[in-house]
Specification:
single chain, alpha+beta, five-stranded antiparallel sheet, Proteasome_suB-type, peptidase activity, Proteasome_sua/b
């Protein structure tokens, strides 16, 4: 499923597709693709069984570190835990075919955005798009995305992106989930139908 995320000076935005349909066939319908792990929002896409397994492994890994080492994991640590899990499986006969987008705070309170691909490469960036959406969204990000965006500008950028995806993709892209992570660690989640 398509997702994209970006960070500004005070907020982070994670937009993910909730329903995947083509013509009259509903391929996937899930509002639980985004999971909260220790204050970090994670969108994991790929094969359904593998994404479920990796979400559970992430939550168990964070809980293990909390109990054994008495440490809280930040967004960078969680992205690296995900990367290590994928890397451990990469040389087996059945490597994971998943990728992840991680949005949250670091130890200084600054917003961070990480992308981990199915080859376990980690990338810290200010904008990321996944799956079929990358062909359309990076061009829009060049025009609209700024590091110092206000919330209204960010919503305008999201609206442009969703409109472009609806007009240009062969799959139905009407149902979306928007997670806005604020500096105060509050998260607003809303569902968008276009």
């Amino acid at each position: 499923m398509i997702s994209f995320a970006f960070v500004t000076s005070g907020k982070a935005y994670l937009i993910s597709q909730t329903t995947l349909t083509n013509s009259i066939m509903r391929i996937k319908d899930s509002k639980e693709e985004v999971v909260e792990v220790n204050g970090t929002r994670a969108f994991i896409s790929g094969n359904q069984g593998e994404t479920y397994r990796l979400r559970m492994e992430l939550q168990e890994g964070v809980e293990y570190v909390r109990r054994v080492f008495k440490k809280e994991m930040n967004t960078r640590n969680i992205a690296n835990l995900f990367k290590n899990t994928i890397y451990d499986k990469i040389r087996t006969r059945m490597p994971y075919q998943v990728s992840g987008v991680f949005v949250g705070h670091d130890e200084t309170g600054a917003m961070r955005l990480f992308h981990v691909d199915n080859y376990s490469a980690v990338n810290e960036t200010h904008f990321v798009a996944t799956n079929y959406g990358i062909y359309f969204l990076y061009g829009l990000a060049d025009v609209f995305h700024k590091a110092e965006m206000e919330h209204e500008e960010a919503i305008e950028f999201i609206n442009h992106a969703l409109k472009a995806l609806k007009e240009r993709t062969a799959i139905d892209t009407r149902s979306w989930r928007l997670d806005v992570v604020k500096e105060s660690l509050k998260v607003e989640t809303q569902y968008i139908e276009i």
